[in-house]
Amino acid sequence: MSDRTLQSIELEIETAKVLTMAVTAEQKLSFRLASLWEAREYLLEGPITFQAISQCINTLDTWRLLDARREVKQMHIILNGTAGIINALALFDYIRWLKLDGFDITIELAGRANRQSALVLAAGSHRVMTESSWLQIDEVSMGTAGNTFEAENHIEWNKRLEAQLRRNLAAGSKTTTRKVAASTRLKGWNVSSGEALALGLVDEVSKARPQRLLQPLHLGFEPLPQAQNEKEALTVATIRKMRAEGALLELENFDAACSAARNGIVRFIDTVTTATVGKAKIDLEAALRLSSADITLLIHSNGGSVTDGLGFIDMARQVNASGRVLNTECLGYAASMGGVMLQCGKKRTMGREAWLLIHKVSSWFGDKTSEAKLSYDYCMQLQKQCFGILAERSVFTADEVAEKCRDHDWWLSAEEALKYGFIDAIR
């Protein structure tokens, strides 16, 4: 075998290797460009839990940052799930925030929206149902246990939530709050796509996919000249590989640049526990190191461990004391310890539909009298700390806060929280 023949074989082998890598990179790029991520489509399927809300907001907020400078800013949420009133309100307010930032949000129901998840559909700029889909709207159901006085207090809060549900469903539709109330009382209100359109609960019954999502995919590269020899074949393969890998890397770099941490965002969408607070501390440290922007702590929480929450508050206060700025925002609700954590922001903001809950610290007090007394004394110390934090910038003293929730849960709307100085703004 001559040296020339050997060199030719080696060149062919090298070209084949590079071409394989080029084709692999092009396939990865094709799948990336064809993904729901690049189409700005999000599937919101199944129970809308803390985890589901966290995943949804993480994705949509990254798209918000990626597309902030685009002339046309669109997102498409495909809904098929069930949500209680508070979780539905959290997404309702977040989607409303996106619209305030100039985004056009299409929400399409493909399946069924149970309980109060119709509120998520109502939040869209453009509300769509597929032909065979159903809305099933129920009365608010927020169960509780306790004595009759506590039950009375809870019923009053449920009534306020009902009014909130009816108001937001009726807004922008042809129905009324009275119609919603009558249709949901003691039963589920099953609404077909045709009825929803007639009532103005949706803007369209869709029978075809949006054209922008049906366009044939092109990588967008300029065509390369046909190789005339083995060396040119290697060059062409190398160019194909480099530009496909380069395009993938560019997309990944854009995603990384728009991550929560790099933009000073920390999200706490969960119960307050040692594990969840630990993760929030890690996220906070990352945001402080990766971003020079003010830190935003987003809270949607039903409360939980007082001591874990107080530990996070101390860290947040250290941030503000060191010259950096940490602000807090609330979607859905900041309940119990979540409400105390909301106070650690330099500027405290609640969504228009969000709630704040203030109540006394609860605990297990043990079987023996001495154990119960020790637990009680400790709880009173923790409660004093929490009420002190809540009172710092409010119109109430700590003792007055304690009196306000002496024998019941104290639920405050965003307007009430602003009036009493527990927050600084409503968005």
Strand content: 15-25%
Distance between the termini: 78 Å
Broad shape:
globular
- Write down the overall mean pLDDT: 92
- The topology string of helices and strands comes to HHEHEHEHEEHHEHEHEHEHEHEEHHEHE
Q: How many separate structural domains?
A: 3
Determine the structural class based on helices, strands and strand pairing: alpha/beta
CATH architecture of the largest domain: Alpha-Beta Complex
CATH topology of the largest domain, which one?
A: 2-enoyl-CoA Hydratase, Chain A, domain 1
State the total count of DSSP E strands.
Answer: 14
Helix content: 40-55%
List the SSEs and their pairings:
Layout: H1 3-33, H2 36-39, E1 41-47, H3 50-66, E2 74-83, H4 85-100, E3 104-115, H5 118-122, E4 126-130, E5 134-137, H6 148-170, H7 177-184, E6 189-192, H8 193-199, E7 204-206, H9 230-257, E8 265-269, H10 274-290, E9 295-301, H11 306-321, E10 326-335, H12 337-342, E11 348-350, E12 355-358, H13 369-391, H14 398-404, E13 410-413, H15 414-419, E14 425-426
Parallel strand pairs: 1-2, 2-3, 3-4, 3-5, 4-7, 8-9, 9-10, 10-11, 10-12, 11-14
Antiparallel strand pairs: 5-6, 12-13
Report what the structure shows.
This protein is an alpha/beta fold and 427 residues long. The protein has three domains: 72 residues, no CATH class; 178 residues, 2-enoyl-CoA Hydratase, Chain A, domain 1 (Alpha-Beta Complex); 166 residues, Alpha-Beta Complex (2-enoyl-CoA Hydratase, Chain A, domain 1). It contains 15 helices and 14 strands. Strands 1, 2, 3, 4, 5, 6 and 7 form a seven-stranded mixed β-sheet that branches. The model has no long low-confidence stretch (mean pLDDT 92).
